[in-house]
Amino acid sequence: MNALLVPFQYEFMQHAFVAALAVGLLCSTMGTYVVLRKLAFIGDGIAHASFAGIVIAYLRGIDYYVGAAVVAVLTALGIGFVHRRGNISLDTTIGVLFTGAFAFGVFLMSLQKNYAVDLQSFLFGDILGVGIGDLVLILVLGIAVAVATVILYRGLLYTSFDPVVAQASGIRSGAIEYALLVMLALTIIVALQSVGIVLVAALLVTPAAAAYQLTSRFTPMMTLSAILGTASTVGGLYLSFFLHGSSGATIVLLSTLLFFAAVGVKSARSAIARRS
Amino acid sequence: MNGDGTAVRTHDITVRYGANVALRDVSIAVNFGQALGIVGPNGSGKSTLLKTIAGLLQPAGGELAVLGTDPRNLAPGSIAYVPQVEAVDWTFPATVWDVVSMGRFPRMRFWQRFGKRDREVVERALQAVNMIDLRDRHIAQLSGGQQQRVFLARAIAQEPQILLLDEPTTGVDAETEKALRKVVRGLVDDGLPVLMTTHDLDGVDEWFDRLLVIDRRVLALGTPREVVESGTYASIREHAHTHGHARTS
Lengths: 276, 249
Description:
Oligomer: heterodimer
Shape of chain B: globular
Number of helices of chain B: 8
CATH architecture of the largest domain in chain B: 3-Layer(aba) Sandwich
Distance between the termini of chain A: 51 Å
Structural class of chain B: alpha/beta
CATH superfamily of the largest domain in chain B: P-loop containing nucleotide triphosphate hydrolases
Number of domains of chain B: 2
Order of helices and strands of chain A: HHHHHHHHHHH
Order of helices and strands of chain B: EEEHEEHHHEHEHEEHH
Distance between the termini of chain B: 31 Å
Helix content of chain B: 25-40%
CATH superfamily of the domain at 11-198 in chain A: ABC transporter involved in vitamin B12 uptake, BtuC
Low-confidence stretches of chain A: none
Low-confidence stretches of chain B: 244-249
Radius of gyration of chain B: 18 Å
Helix content of chain A: over 70%
Mean pLDDT of chain B: 90
Largest sheet of chain B: 6 strands, mixed
Radius of gyration of chain A: 19 Å
Strand order of the largest sheet of chain B: 5-6-7-3-8-9
CATH architecture of the domain at 11-198 in chain A: Orthogonal Bundle
């Protein structure tokens, strides 16, 4: 068999590739909104906050990702509520709520004499450990977020550019912001399994930021972001098999590389434009 | 809609920002086919009044009726609000066409495609503000006057029942101001009610049918000529000159 196809013959790698495809597509599509609404902090924030959910799930003996999802969605709604009611900027609100929730998780964990949560895989992800059950969860949440994106497409676009005018014209900016925060929370939970807390922010920001360098319209930006994001996750996973390195780290390094390539292309383009 | 031809009616409305009173006991009425100019010193509540009528701020007291009801109850697309151009990030990935197309969004359901009529309305709006040749230009490459015209075109493309403009003449050259005025007056003559803030006191009689002078409360309200002759206008004018033309809230 061709050596380049070796990764695809293992079942765990097949699962991992499906997960990588779904996570790459989802994160980089949602990342378009994250970058344009200047919410780069949110991936990090909600991922950290969900740690409290994992500890609670561990203590209660339920699935970790259910716990993480519940706390992530609650934190997202809390962020929206405090931001709107308190008239406090979104990044400040995210900073306050995520550290609070994260500390709550650490506090609960510190009360335990012997805890056995696999923190390593939570922090850095374990895409190679994705089972059929995880895949189903990833696909269900992924499809739900994708459907919501289609339904809210125009409202999300308008409120990303001009939320005040959108609201005056009868678009429900507040409801759309809450919906976006919940969609992001679910996206982050989906990504957690594959790349972990530490690297989830990268998948939400880097492909979209790279696409932003290369395009000047919204839909092409979202499409290109999806291509770059999927190339990063699937390509990174593939490379990590041969490099024997951490899959999560390889994925993020590849997307970082693509980002700098995009910046290079943009600089070269404007240099050429100046000369002509 | 009101039978008496009144598009906007406020009765003794008070608007607060926290403990600060931004507007007190403001009563105005604007009819269909009428343009109301709103002038006043910086911080006088001009923008606050527009935002309240747009349903973006809730009055703490008094009565407000836009097209006969609470502005938040109106059908999507009824109110077009044109903010100051600094309100958005012009590096957003969009062309002139994309931004003006957004004017169609409030009335569209998610399953509806952007159809032939939508494209025609957007084209006409771009033609009205003389921006059709720049339709494919990225919005980051526009001058301030062009940005203002794009915002007006987006409002026109919305086909609203009421138009609110927040200092559209700030920072635009005389030619653009004249062009904007021609477009807005055309809309008013077609029956659209328009409310517009300005600190450009010179052209008020050409722009407006009625002029409101406010400084948190109503100082004068009448035809531009009446207001000018009342002297309130002169004191505001002096105020504007001594305090410069800095941005208002």
